[in-house]
């Protein structure tokens, strides 16, 4: 593929620390010597790939301290991607809530209307233009969803996707639940998850 110069090739290595573990540990005897050969082979292959102008190599890691320094030195750009922002947390939870309603797991019976949850920017505009006492229906649910997103500060995207499942599992009657009760449970579940992170 790389020999076709008009083709842009992306190579993604997820959890790169499993391949590029620091060789210092192997030298001290706490890791098998095979790991040194793996890292050496990886570095050699990366150097060969980098000679092609149409190749971009990207890697991810949650344990950056475990990556071999020679591998890190070869990186042109190192970027830290932190936990999701408030807007991202809201959008993740919003998509989960809409899917639960669509699948019939949660029932929204506000005059038999479909539950339409605005995106983060639209919600902020609406909340800014209305008094809190004027909130009703889906907008009130969205405000509660925003509170849930605020309670999730510091949680990873993976945990956020799992959060609605955990909240639903802790409902006293999961077969018959409206989104309002569900969101109350979601906020409690988020607070519990965040408190477990801080322990």
Automatic annotation (TrEMBL):
Tagged with keyword Nucleus: yes
Organism in which the protein naturally occurs: Platanthera guangdongensis
Main location per the UniProt record: nucleus
Domain of life the protein comes from: Eukaryota
A Pfam family annotated for this UniProt entry: AAA
Location of the ATPase AAA-type core domain: 9-82
Residue ranges of domain Pachytene checkpoint protein 2 C-terminal in the record: 85-193
Name listed for the protein in its UniProt record: Pachytene checkpoint protein 2 homolog
Gene3D superfamilies recorded: P-loop containing nucleotide triphosphate hydrolases
Reported function: Plays a key role in chromosome recombination during meiosis.
Alphabetical keyword list: ATP-binding, Meiosis, Nucleotide-binding, Nucleus
């Amino acid at each position: 593929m790389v020999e076709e110069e008009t083709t842009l090739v992306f190579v993604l290595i997820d959890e790169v620390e499993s391949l590029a573990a620091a060789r210092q540990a192997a030298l001290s005897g706490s890791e098998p010597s095979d790991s040194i050969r793996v890292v050496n082979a990886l570095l050699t292959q990366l150097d060969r790939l980098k000679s092609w102008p149409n190749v971009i190599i990207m890697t991810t890691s949650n344990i950056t301290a475990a990556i071999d320094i020679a591998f890190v030195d070869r990186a042109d750009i190192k970027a830290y991607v932190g936990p999701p922002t408030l807007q991202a947390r809201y959008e993740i939870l919003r998509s989960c809530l809409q899917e639960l309603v669509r699948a019939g797991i949660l029932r929204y019976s506000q005059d038999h209307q479909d539950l339409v949850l605005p995106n983060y920017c639209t919600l902020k505009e609406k909340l800014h233009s209305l008094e809190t006492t004027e909130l009703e229906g889906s907008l009130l649910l969205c405000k509660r969803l925003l509170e849930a997103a605020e309670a999730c500060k510091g949680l990873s995207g993976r945990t956020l996707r799992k959060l609605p499942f955990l909240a639903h599992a802790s409902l006293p009657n999961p077969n018959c639940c409206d989104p309002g009760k569900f969101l109350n449970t979601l906020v409690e579940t988020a607070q519990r998850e965040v408190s477990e992170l801080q322990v």
